[in-house]
Amino acid sequence: MSDFSNQIAIDTETYYSTKYSIRGNSTRWYVNQPDFDCYGLSLVNDDIEYVGPPEDFDWSSVKGMEAVAHNASFDQRVIWKLVEKGQIPEDVFSRWHCSADMCVAQQYPRPLDMAVKSVFGHELPKDMRDWMRGKTWDDAVAHDKAKDLQLYALEDSRWAWKLWKKLSETWSEPERRLSRMTREMAWEGMPVDEAMLEDYIDKLEAQMHEAKNKLPWYDEIDPDTKKPYVVYSKKALAIECRKRDIPPPKSLARDSEDLAVWLKDYGDKMDFVADMQNYARMNTHCKRLKSMQDRLYKKNLMSYNLKYWGADVTGRWSGDSGLNVQNLPRDSQYGVNIRHCIKARRGHKLVVADLSQIEPRCIAYSVGDEEFIKHLASGMSPYEAHARQTMNWRGGELKKEDPDLYMLAKVRVLQLGYGSGWYKFWQTVKAYGQLQILEGKLDKRTERRFLDYAGSYQPKLVKEFADLPAGDKVHQVNAWVQVMDFREKNPLITQQWRHHDKGFKESVGEDYEVELISGRTLGFFDIRNEIDGVTCKTQRKARRRSYMYGANIFQNGIQSLARDCFSHQLLELRDRGWNPVMHVHDELMLEVKTKDVKKAAADVEDVMTTPPDWLEGLPLETDVMITNHYE
Description:
Blueprint (H helix, E strand, L loop, with lengths): L6 E8 L12 H5 L6 E7 L4 E4 L13 E4 L2 H13 L10 E4 H7 L6 H9 L6 H5 L5 H6 L3 H22 L5 H16 L1 E2 L2 H20 L20 H10 L13 H10 L5 H23 L1 E3 L2 E2 L3 E2 L10 E2 L28 E8 L2 H10 L2 H8 L4 H9 L7 H4 L1 H14 L5 H10 L12 H14 L1 H7 L4 H20 L1 H15 L6 E4 L5 E10 L2 E5 L8 E2 L2 H26 L6 E3 L2 E7 L3 H12 L13 E6 L4
């Protein structure tokens, strides 16, 4: 798969400073700033070693080769910029590979120094790079650091090449393609309505100014710092509270129960606290919009960054570089809908589709629940199938006839299938404002059983239970009833939890592996007993440890299968000539010419309802939408 004689590692060295950095910015932004300066690069393979200025290298010696960079999303674009500036010839490399992506896909750390230490046990110093912050090549020469800088650059390419030779043969071709597609998709970007961005920013800034002016301490000077109080000043708030003989809130966090109680008691006397909160939320929105605006590079086109294999175990993508397109708010807030800013350009449409309920489907397939799969094959949703199998539903279409039962079934499937306990289940239902699904009579016998069970595991919560309002007691006990009912009636799932829990705990001092039907293996490394559980590393020889247990390992396996299924479909669509402009978890978006939109939608539906061979027989569904803007 890897032809080392036709590949070469490359690393570029560029100017950066405290104010001018790739951190928090897109690669396209970085290479197009006036401060951009690639003062050196290094290239290494078994036959070539070069370090020096880009223009001094004999580029004909690597013409047609494949480049390997340990952060190809950066180095590839630096080379692109050097070509644009005329410093080096164009079309030198036939293909780019990212050795950082290769590492994380095999559960090694992403940063070069950490990957090298993990694979080879070698410490790769980074002090030279730190020294170069805010300095140019001329500065390095003036300080007699030129040779040190060149050796540092050369060592990076040497070790990237060693990593590539060591690990590339076990990095599959489909995953290599996904890595390249991720870079290309984010670089080309997505369509954005510039006028709407500007209008939304103006609208939020006007509201922020109004909220700020309502604060009693606006423009007042803090006598200790001699500077104006900031909008979110807890000190200024405490002073205002003392003026009114009111205790200050313990927390200003949006989801704080203490704050909710405090606002109920004192909110009418301290109405400006709501302005503090609104200002903070509007500012977050405004920063996100400005970040999108900063990434515009053509009329109504926004480049961004996306991290291939952002999650250590599952391999799902994640947001990157200061703008997380994976987590844009769904709803309109303060008269602004950020998703609506993503809008098809003139003469185009967006085709948006997701894999409907892919995780519940993968759960049923992986545990061999044939009855459940038969329900799916009839066109039934996983939530209704669950209600019919385990909740005594015998009526017609559940969602129409009993919406509350449908909601309960949905929450059970999505949360309890991964081992959620009663308290977390109750919190989730409460957070979504759906406590009506936990209503019901509370008999003393069930309450005693609940208290006996909870007292063994969570004695603190049992002590608090006695002082709860009657309604909360009913909801908590019924949450426990639902959890126990789910576990009793879904033995195929709980059997998998126990299997992984046993295997994981028996592997203390070693690693635990899970082989997936998709062909890859999940690793949980260096397992260790702790006072309050069992931990592991989710990257080989990394520093960070995570608590893990059977149901959590099962969840990682299911989410990995969902990711692999979606990845297979991305590649299939690419083979048919369709390139997404963005994808989020199990959802993708195309921008296509209006004349091609029916063909695109038909292809998307066909691909996303056809399972890969390793999921043969699993009914898949998708919801394909043709629209002007993202919802």
